């Protein structure tokens, strides 16, 4: 999400869970509801499995999770939640895809457009530069605790047919086809490793690096997206 490193954003999300648990539960429920429209079996629906795992990590009550699944499969009524994507560019040529889950698309569209305009950007087509992939993040700390060699793990992941992986100081980011996301999670589970995150994301094919003096401005924009109640996630072409 945050462009430079999703690890920082993941930690910020955890803080939001503590500070605004009710609002976070609403967002997570919307994610589950949308994912459940493709089927209510978490073993056959990797999107739903990832959404439920996120909700459990945030200590969302089991009843809330089950209610959200039933809402998505049509067993429960209520307001219809829509999944909307907005594309745009913010100077200097930072491409961003914003994912909203909302019951009011007019509100979402106008708010997100305002945030782009406020930061000198505008809506525009950028999705051509993004691929939808499963993304799994394993922290260095978790690997050390289990005494697992990073090189050995990488070889096993390559044998599993992953798309790519990226080493960062905080840990390993694994990119895989959506259909193989659960296989990667199962391999990690067999080693006692619990991912920091396992989600389906839009990943930029061609990425850019921001000059240091422009990083703070971009972080401010991402924080504004984080604070928007309709914004569920966002993806950029930043390294």
Give an overview of the whole structure.
This protein is an alpha+beta fold and about 240 residues long. It folds into three domains: about 70 residues, Arc Repressor Mutant, subunit A; about 80 residues, Alpha-Beta Plaits, CATH 3.30.70.980; about 80 residues, 2-Layer Sandwich (Alpha-Beta Plaits), CATH 3.30.70. About 45% of the residues lie in helices and about 25% in strands. It is built from nine helices and eight strands. Strands 3-1-2-8 form a four-stranded antiparallel sheet. Strands 5-6-4-7 form a four-stranded antiparallel sheet. It is globular and about 50 Å long.
Assign the CATH class of the largest domain. Answer: Alpha Beta
Can you identify the CATH superfamily of the largest domain?
YebC, transcriptional regulation domain
Which residues form runs of ≥5 with pLDDT under 50? 14-19
- The quaternary structure here is single chain
Number of helices: 9
Q: What is the CA-atom radius of gyration, in angstroms?
A: 18 Å
Largest sheet: 4 strands, antiparallel
Strand content: 15-25%
Number of self-contained structural domains? 3
CATH topology of the largest domain, what is it called?
Alpha-Beta Plaits
What's the N-to-C terminus distance? 11 Å
Q: Average pLDDT across residues?
A: 85
User: Which CATH architecture of the largest domain?
Assistant: 2-Layer Sandwich
Helix and strand pattern: HHHHEEHEEHHEEHEHE
Structural class designation: alpha+beta
Across the major sheet, the strand order is 3-1-2-8
Which geometry do the CA atoms define? globular
Percent of residues in helical segments? Answer: 40-55%
């Amino acid at each position: 999400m945050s462009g430079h490193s999703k690890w920082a954003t993941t930690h910020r999300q955890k803080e939001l869970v503590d500070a605004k648990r009710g609002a976070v539960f609403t967002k997570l429920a919307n994610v589950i509801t949308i994912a459940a429209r493709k089927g209510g079996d978490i073993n056959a629906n990797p999107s739903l499995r990832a959404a439920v795992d996120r909700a459990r990590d945030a200590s969302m009550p089991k009843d809330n999770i089950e209610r959200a699944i039933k809402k998505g499969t049509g067993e429960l009524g209520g307001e219809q939640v829509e999944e909307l994507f907005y594309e745009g560019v913010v100077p200097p040529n930072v491409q961003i895809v914003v994912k909203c889950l909302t019951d009011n698309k007019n509100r979402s569209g106008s708010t997100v457009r305002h945030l782009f305009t406020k930061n000198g950007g505008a809506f525009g087509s950028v999705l051509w530069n993004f691929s939808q992939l499963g993304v799994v993040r394993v922290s260095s700390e978790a690997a050390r605790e289990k005494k697992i060699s990073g090189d050995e793990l990488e070889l096993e992941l390559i044998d599993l047919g992953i798309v790519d992986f990226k080493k960062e100081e905080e840990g390993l980011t694994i990119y895989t086809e959506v259909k193989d996301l659960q296989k990667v999670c199962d391999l990690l589970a067999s080693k006692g490793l619990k991912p920091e995150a396992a989600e389906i994301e839009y990943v930029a094919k061609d990425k850019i690096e921001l000059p240091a003096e422009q990083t703070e401005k971009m972080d401010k924009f991402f924080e504004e997206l984080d604070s928007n109640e309709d914004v569920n996630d966002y993806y950029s072409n930043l390294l």
